[in-house]
Amino acid sequence: MSENPPPPEQAAFRPSKWPGLIWAVPLAAVGIIGWLSLSAFVHHGPRVRVTFPVTGGLRAGTTKVEYQGYVVGHVSAVRLEKDLQKLQVTLDFDNRMAGHLGAGTRYWLAGTSFSLAHLSNIKDMVSGPVVMLDPHAGATVTHAQGLGAPPALSGSPPGLSLTLTAARLDNLSAGSPVFFKGYHVGQVTSVAMAPDGGHFNMALFIKAPWEGLVTARTRFWNAGAVRLSAGGDGPGVQLQSVPALLMGAVAFETPPVPGAAPAKTGATFTLYASKTQAQDAPGPDAVRYAAIFPGGPHGLKPGAPVQIEGAPAGSVSAVALHYDAGQGALQTRVTFSLSPARAGVADAAGLNAMLATLVGKGLRAEMGSSVPVVGGKIIQLEMAKDAPPAPIQPGTPPLIPSFGAGGGDVSGVIIQLNQVLASVNGMRLDQIAANVQSATRHIASLTGSAQTRRTLRHLDQTMRHIDDITRRADAQLPALLSAVQQSADQAQHALRDARNLLAAQRQGNAAADSGDLPQTLYQLSEAARSLRALSDFLTSHPGALLTGRGD
Description:
Blueprint: H1 24-43, E1 44-53, E2 64-67, E3 70-80, E4 86-94, E5 106-110, H2 121-127, E6 130-134, E7 143-145, E8 159-166, E9 177-180, E10 183-193, E11 200-207, E12 219-222, E13 227-231, E14 234-238, H3 242-247, E15 250-253, E16 268-272, H4 275-280, E17 287-294, E18 305-308, E19 311-324, E20 329-338, H5 348-360, E21 363-369, E22 377-383, E23 402-405, H6 410-426, H7 429-448, H8 450-508, H9 517-540, H10 544-547
Parallel strand pairs: 1-7, 2-6, 8-16, 9-15, 12-16, 18-22, 21-23
Antiparallel strand pairs: 1-4, 2-3, 3-4, 5-6, 8-11, 9-10, 10-11, 12-15, 13-14, 17-20, 18-19, 19-20, 21-22
Helix pairs in contact: 8-9
């Protein structure tokens, strides 16, 4: 056995056709990255940079972009501009939005402020702001100006756009609803103050198919407030609805005028403060008049109703206070307009003729209240009793005679109270009080004197005696009547016997000294007749024994 073993055989090296497993990890990573890149490229949509007013809550990678409640993208970057007034926000959309971000696309922020017109913002205020959009078809516009609040209308719905002018804005805002007979037919799209600050301009949109409800005679009013009204059924409260009270509302009414053409887009209307003012507002055929009242306006304002014998006929257009140097007193000149149709005539000529006739018969203008004591001031044309003749004075406008404040007004009541107080003050109350006090003392002394007490005692005794006599007469009256009756019967029998005797005398040729017998019988007959009459009278009137026969 050899001590030196043979050397091992040399392994033959043969290179493998596949790389080692160690390369599987980087290869897998490269594959994943490539897949993600390809997927991102395939699914990545348009990118748009939008400028928004500065607001809080926008976060890159967190804030979503939504359309009709669906997520269509996200905010990828937020950058503050150098002027510190604007934000440059980069929006990355899904590829499905390609072709829908053309010219006219609007972007806005939702959930940055609370608005009753957009109650859905409450959820966004809790979860954070969201970018909303109103897409338009076309090639993607990569730069756009965003809105800080939601627009009133989304898209381009068919309808009618109008403009309202109002002296006050009250609680109206963009998004406030528009009602026709309580039905929601449109909304306020924007609100802006005029450059001079004298009024407000409101853009209004009436949705199809209700745009034909608006004509040149349509009246608009603010329906978002609670107002007191006075009608034939008494005072009441006007309220469109609770949401209208919170977010404001506009309502309108169109008089049924045959052949009235629908309003055109861009037409301008006046927004009245209440339905009453809208109804009383003068139309295009209204006729202007004036009246002068002593003293100040006492709360009378333009727009106040004008009534003819209690019927609405127009409204006040101007109120002016001036000083009359000749009389040394303040006066209020009121200009108002009357509608011929509401006065029951065809045109202005008919209205002028009617008023001229009525004023000649006593029609006068007075300042009154819609509701006694607590109502607003109005102008009333009423027939005044015993009014002196006073024609309408010509002028521009013609002047209707007046007789001051009405009796139903607070000032009229105060004037009447002052007149009563003046009459009371004119009485000599001190002398009247002294006379009353003196009469009271005399009555007290008279009732407490001894002579009065004696007189009362004697009167009491007299009454007791009369009562005793009456009781006795009642007890003896039947016997007395019976005796009178018996006397009358006996006299009647005697008369009958006498007549029989007279007849026998005539038959027997009585002596000449019996010639007085007929006279005696006649007197006896009269006595019997008197007794019978007395008996009958006492039977019917037993009280005559005490009170006498009377007339």
